[in-house]
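User: For a benchmark we're assembling, each entry needs the component sequences followed by a predicted structure for the full assembly. Here are entry 17's components. Please fill in the structure.
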Amino acid sequence: MQLIEMDGVGIKRQGRWLIQNVTLSVKAGEIVTLIGPNGAGKSTTAKTALGVLKADAGKIKRKPNLKVGYVPQKLAVDWTMPLTVGRLMSLTAKPSRDEIDKVLEKTGISHLINANVQQLSGGEYQRALLARAILRTPDLLVLDEPVQGVDYSGEIALYNLILQIREELNCGILLISHDLHVVMAQTDTVVCLNGHVCCSGAPEHVAASDAYKQLFGDAASQSLAIYHHHHDHSHKADGTIVPSKGDSGDCCDHG
Amino acid sequence: MDDFILRAMLAGIGLALVSGPLGCFVVWRRMAYFGDTMSHSALLGVALAFLLNINLMVGVLGVTVTVSLCLLILQKRGALSTDALLGLLSHSALALGMVLIAFMSSVRFDLLSLLFGDILAVGNEDVIAIYACAAVILGLMYFLWRPLLASTVNRELAEAEGFNPDLTQLVFMVMMAAIIAIAMKIVGVLLITALLIIPAATARWFARTPEQMAVASSIIGVASVILGLEGSLQFDSASGPSIVVASLCLFLLSLFASRLINRVLGKERGQ
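Assistant: Structure for entry 17:
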């Protein structure tokens, strides 16, 4: 079941196309990652998928009554608003105290339930935002750079948490990320974006493509090779592990 | 207690109950100057109400809503920055109101009481209007609390997760316009924003959640109104400034109190 399908979608602002001809889809249990340089339109694409921005071209199909959890790139809570982690959990939904306790335990921030959100460290705050998003038991989770401001070991822990959430909720995840290593290791589909879709498909396929090398340099495509030593499978939609021969994608030529 | 004082007290308390939670949103959304613009334009509403011979509150409501819609439209066009637009609208409306008033030589205006409030002007029908308005606004706030708060924290998040921030914003602006219309006689058009902001700022020191801040802000507002009106009687000062000075005193007190509380808590932790 496709949760969301974008077909040739474009967003135009002040006569300039921010994104153009973007085609992608997310299935239940699938992790789709958007990568691309700054200003490539990653956040714009995510917001369009969410329906926050209205598409100026193309078609978007969403599953009826699609429930979304969203972790925006920037969420600065004004200092004047007193807001504890516990209260943040019920910002858009009405969870029970029990559900809140459970999700905070899962994300490892139980001890912070009474802490002010303005006083959390980068990693703690990202965990709190993630907890809030999954508390809704969403069909689709949209994570816009969920590991920003998190140190390296914290990053790995957070990505593992995201994988675990995918297994438990069987939700689709649209992820925006800068960490090419992790993206390549733990993603089902990579969409390489630079105003338009340069390249998309299984990570192996994308990493081998010329468009990817042009955007990120030869060194980046090596990251996959290093990683391949200890991990040579990918996850299918239902979560089962299959060895990847991944040549299942499309690429455009960046001649 | 004399009748007119009782009426003013009742009216002021009703007003403060609503201005508490509404004022919190003004602070959280950083809309203090926006509130100023709306309330300054209320004077134009008064002038138009006399000119067209309609109810005062209706005139004020109409003009303040129109001005805030103008602001939204001009903001979308993006020709000027928001603060310049606010200044333009605020002072143009104020000036237009004054000029219109000057043209109507047949009607006598007590300008000072319009600008700074006059408890003698509060009649029985005003008290009823204030409580009716307050009931509607508090009811709306209760039902819209979650979408209002969510879109205040992050507009896009609220929209992505199923709320309608545009609609909430529109309702919020109408509520602002309504409170300005009912507050005019008690605090005057120049000082309405103070009644929204100062109790909310005072409540910030003591609250741990948005709900606590809203309730505390209402209580502090009620205290300011009672103290201010008492002072107004005592010193024969205008009601609006007296209420604002009382709320300022409470704010300063709360500053010291919160310092003291923090110091005591700090010592306990140290031991």
